[in-house]
Amino acid sequence: MASPGPDRTADRGAAAPVDGWLLAAVLALAAFGAVMVYSASAVTAAARTQDQFYFLKRQLLAAGVGLALLLGALRLGYRRFEGLAYPALIFTVFSLLLVLVPGIGKMAGGARRWIGAGPLSFQPAELCKVALVLYLARSLAYKRDKMRLFSIGFVPHIVVTVMLMGLCLLERDLGTCIVLGAVLFAMLFAAGVKLGWLVSAVLFAAPVCWYLITGTHYRLQRWLAFKDPFAYRDGYGFQMVESLLGVGNGGWFGQGLGDGKGKLFYLPAAHTDFIGAVIAEELGLLGMLLLVALYAVFVWRGMRAAFRAGDAFGCYLALGLTTLVGVQAIFNLCVVLVLLPTKGLTLPFVSYGGSSLMTLMGASGLLLSVSAGQGGFLRRGSQAVRLSQAEVAP
Hints:
Radius of gyration: 21 Å
Shape: globular
Order of helices and strands: HHHEEEHHHHHHHHHEEH
Number of domains: 1
Helix content: 55-70%
Strand order of the largest sheet: 1-2-3
Strand content: 5-15%
Number of strands: 5
Distance between the termini: 26 Å
Low-confidence stretches: 5-14, 374-394
Number of helices: 13
Mean pLDDT: 86
């Protein structure tokens, strides 16, 4: 994807209609996720809380907040967020540091990744992904004529991303680091950074990643279990084996919605990381193909928005957000099919998790805004007046 040309001031006529395909894909994924979260969690929720709707109600609440964020981002227009790129990055770094403070950061599954406030909690690593995309989009658009310079087009973006990765590693979140790296690679490549630099960065990162895996006991055990899940069936390979059994049990058309067996205390994290296995077991190959088709529509329309964006910031923003969702979906489904070791990544819009759902739906509002070519709206009296790029950009 070539670096976009000079910015074009938005047309002052009526804004283009919202991309119906993209909006439908986002809403369909969120609705599909709510149904499957209930199916995957009802038994567990009833056993733990005596309320089979516990996880569903929290997911619907997050979806409602996420929808409000989507509409808000779409209403404001993506260009208003260009000036928020650096404040969002600073806030994200502060939040990631705050998670590490005992008494503030909440532990779950052996990792400290959540900031708790009573019954509510938020995972800053989910915000970190969108904050990185905003920062890169702003920086790459500003420096687009100097991307072939090593000290300007390459080094600063690597440093910021590595800093975020380091904070995520302190939270034992290697999966988020991999997603951040994939987003960085895609956006730098699209911006015209020399391919040799990118390849060198990947070659340098490979042994570091291998050290992080082999130098940490639980990651090494996951890697060994991935190579032979059935040999570690009673330990680190348990999730992988149960996921494979669920996928295999689904066949072409599945066992029927709600009739899966894996979620009956066999498959850990059935409503979060491994919800794909529940979908495969209950809805079969047909259900999985539908899920993949929805992600394909999201990626298709997101890339279309990037190519048709009226300015550099919108182009890079759409590319980054599309890559974020697409890469995370691929990684999660590969883990479910045991094509990759377990990483703790959720299935975008579908897995249970308020932080992920709200953040991604808000990001989808920005993507929809790019696809509609909106520079933002400002009310003056009773009329909504379109702001040009020059009026909105900082």
